[in-house]
Amino acid sequence: MQDLYRVLIVDDEPLIRQGIKHYLDWEKAGFEIVGEASNGQEALALIPRCQPHIMLTDMVMPIMDGEVLTKEMKQHYPDIQVVILSSFGEYDYVRSAFHHGAIDYILKPKLNAKDLHDVLRKAAKHIPKGLKHEETYEKAVSSKSTQIEKVIDGYSSKEDIDQLCEVFTYPYFCLIGVVSRNESDDINKVECAERLLAPFYKEHEDQVRYTWIKEDQHTAMAIINLNNLELYERLKNVCQVEAQISFIMTSCFEQLEQLRRIYLEEWKELTQLPFYFSEQSLICSEDASCTEKEESFNLDWFTDELKNGHYDLAFQYLRQYSYSLVQSARLSVNEFRSFFNHIFFTVTILLSNHGYERSKLEQVKFSYVSKVSAALSAHEVIEYMERFIEEMNDTVNQVNVKGNEDSIQQVIEYISTHYHEPISLNVVAEMFHFNASYLSTQFSHHMKVGFNEYVNRIRIEYACKQLTEGKRPIAEIGEVVGYSDHSYFCKVFKKLKGVSPSYYRRQQKKGQLRELG
To answer: 5-134 in CATH: which number?
Structure first.
């Protein structure tokens, strides 16, 4: 197998790093990319693991720039050759980097395959003789992360697989990941994992090989090569420790060609589970297989219950469904958060439409959306949901809500001026932008009488005035106050007054005559 010069790329722009990776056929040119970093601090942390011969570094980067990186690296790793990636206006930076030991530079705006190859060959000539060939098995394994990524991404060749099999010679593989239990903790996940697993590796160093492949803000991933299945079980036991990190592990597989399938079918799901099982030290593929499918949330029913003022029923359903979501762990983290944010929007909009104070509801909504978006576990999200429901119940239970009182008063005024017209609960609810059931509930609460009965009372009071003061026929009075059916008018009148309209008129006239006499 041809020995390759190992290259580390350091640039805060992912597109630049990707572009550099695709400029060359690296292995054919005699090089391989063993790592990437977005700033100098990340690069220094990668060097012990990647052991590069050459570093391509940008100058202007956050946290630690290229000038400081070159100085620090040359103090601790003087044999690593530094090539500067420079823009036109960075001459002072480049000059300073040369002062600290950089070997050459390339202008990024004019970067091309030939110039990149030439500068790498120039840097390779300055590598001390013999350094390139001092690879132990550990170095050989750690230098294969790029080829492993190609297998995962689905564009590896048979040659890639063959070369990996020359290094990973044991029959069993698994992927292992490290997740920080608290993203606010400033810890190096890989270093923490290395400390915890060091005794296991030392005890079985002639039966275990591994290399770290990928690391992002949330998870670091390694591939483990094991001599037997018993070691897989021992490794699982080692990972079940109380620490600042949690481990995730796929099932074992026997061929590197299976790596991409394991990654797609197991790994991606496993990386979501620490959010749900935040207290577990180790999460395996068995945990993923135990997740259950749930019925979809019945949003139509939920919103109807809210519109009808049945808040306790709606919120109880939300609670039950939410806890089942945590148990099933079937949603991705983003889907889980989005579900609750959608609920917050739905509830606050419906309540504001019902007359509750809109500005306060808006503040509550955005407060909880922000909290859920930053939550580190599903249980934390559930806590926020419970607080949200508590706040919504407090709002709903404040019976004398000014907005509701004003709205009901407007409905009363409308009835008083339009009693003689056809009036129905549905028509009035639509006119004042209420759900009909909700208006019925609120009206009864404020007026201590139902909507239709209140309309009838108003109409009959006006009918009594007509019967007493006017001379219109009774049938005409019924129509004037809003009853098109005479018999129905008489029925309602007798129900409310205890006598028929004609008897009421006679009694009123007798009373007037007695007063005159």
So the answer is: 3.40.50.2300
